[in-house]
Inverse folding.
């Protein structure tokens, strides 16, 4: 048997969620009971898909216009960089964004929350990062919404992000939250991350420089993916 | 140094944004090799189909290469239906020679996202009709429990004449026959 080594850095325990987290009731029948088997990285884990416009279509980074009119709600600009743990930008990687509308309702057939849909808002977009790893979306501040995890539970307002990075190891699906939201302290999904600093990294920062006068509020959110180890041990 | 961004669940409401049925056809950009279908169900701890899971596939091309030019993308995405069923249409990957010389048996990597999974799961699909390759595969050999190893082997089923070979692979999230997942 050969010696396989880690090509990509590993997360620090406690800085990510554990799947076995009973306060989030959907985990009860879905979280595996056995610990995942640690394997060293092979080419399979150290590589990943590359997306171009031929595949994803042109950027869809303005979510405020769909159909004939403008979406209802507070306009927000969400911008940031996709980086690796060593600070290098992740260029040309696909970011997908999806969210509820201003009333806290998703355009999804199973979302039964009794709140209005907005004919001018879908809540889905995507972008490819530029050479410095930058992305920028114009969208609507999502509303909080009720869920049945426990009685009278409400999810804090959030945007969902999906990002690929360079490899299977760097793949990330996460949620971005907003500063000052009182629902964060009560939310089991947010609190599934044991280390407070790691949780709080999911909260975007209000950035007056990013705000556009008389038009939209700016929130900054950087996404940091697992990068290559500085000194790979030579596969 | 910036610190890593943590994972959060994909949640229940993602299909309107992430589900592109065409992405389940991994051969869409062009592909050489034997056409195959990898299909199965995602099942929860009660053996019930998971209707809101998303799976992503990543694989080498028929020659065992990940680094390549245009053509075969090697990536697919599929969502489960009401019964937890999914299917990928692809080509059989080749054996992968690592830079150090070790040879991995033909396999695909599968990543699973769902409501109730705070972090996605990663597993691998190997092919039952490549038993000799599987015997030598470094990742399969590293799994001590033969029952866990067996969960990674897709079984060939008889499809209709003239259709691609069908390999069945169920993802069992929890329980006695729980799929082996990897910490990568």
């Amino acid at each position: 048997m050969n010696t396989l080594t880690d090509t990509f850095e590993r997360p620090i325990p406690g800085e990510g969620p554990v799947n076995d987290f009973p306060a989030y009731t959907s985990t009860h029948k879905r979280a595996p009971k056995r610990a995942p088997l640690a394997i060293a990285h092979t080419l399979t884990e150290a590589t990943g898909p590359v997306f171009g416009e031929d595949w994803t279509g042109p950027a869809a980074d303005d979510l405020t216009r769909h159909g004939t009119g403008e979406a209802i709600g507070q306009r927000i600009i969400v911008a940031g960089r996709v980086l690796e743990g060593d600070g290098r930008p992740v260029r040309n990687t696909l970011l997908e964004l999806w969210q509820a509308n201003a009333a806290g309702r998703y355009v999804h057939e199973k979302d039964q929350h009794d709140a209005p849909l907005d004919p001018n808002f879908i809540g889905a977009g995507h972008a490819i990062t530029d050479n410095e790893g930058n992305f920028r979306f114009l969208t609507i501040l999502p509303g909080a919404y009720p869920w049945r995890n426990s009685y009278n539970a409400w999810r804090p307002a959030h945007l969902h992000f999906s990002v690929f990075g360079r490899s299977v190891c760097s793949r990330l699906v996460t949620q971005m939250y907003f500063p000052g939201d009182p629902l964060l302290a009560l939310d089991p999904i947010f609190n599934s991350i044991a280390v407070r600093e790691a949780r709080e990294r999911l909260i975007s920062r209000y950035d007056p420089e990013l705000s556009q006068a008389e038009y939209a509020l700016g929130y900054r959110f950087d996404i940091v993916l697992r990068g290559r180890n500085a000194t790979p041990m030579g596969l | 140094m910036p610190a890593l961004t943590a994972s959060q669940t994909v949640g229940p409401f993602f299909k309107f944004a992430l589900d592109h049925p065409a992405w389940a056809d991994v051969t869409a950009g062009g592909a050489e090799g034997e056409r195959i279908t990898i299909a199965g169900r995602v099942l929860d701890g009660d053996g019930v189909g998971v209707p809101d899971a998303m799976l992503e596939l990543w694989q080498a091309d028929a020659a065992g290469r990940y680094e390549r030019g245009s053509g075969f993308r090697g990536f697919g995405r599929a969502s489960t239906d009401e019964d937890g069923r999914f299917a990928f249409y692809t080509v059989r990957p080749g054996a992968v020679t690592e830079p150090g010389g070790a040879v991995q048996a033909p396999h695909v990597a599968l990543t699973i996202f769902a409501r109730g999974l705070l972090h996605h799961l990663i597993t691998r699909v190997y092919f039952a009709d490549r038993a000799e390759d599987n015997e030598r595969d470094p990742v399969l050999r590293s799994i001590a429990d033969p029952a866990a190893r067996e969960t990674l082997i897709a079984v060939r089923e008889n499809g209709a004449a003239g259709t691609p070979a069908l390999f069945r692979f169920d993802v069992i999230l929890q329980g006695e026959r729980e799929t082996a997942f990897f910490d990568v």
Observations:
- Chain B has one domain: 15-82+92-164.
- Helices of chain B lie at 15-18, 131-136, 138-141, 146-150.
- Residues 15-82+92-164 of chain B form a domain with the Protocatechuate 3,4-Dioxygenase, subunit A fold (CATH 2.60.130.10).
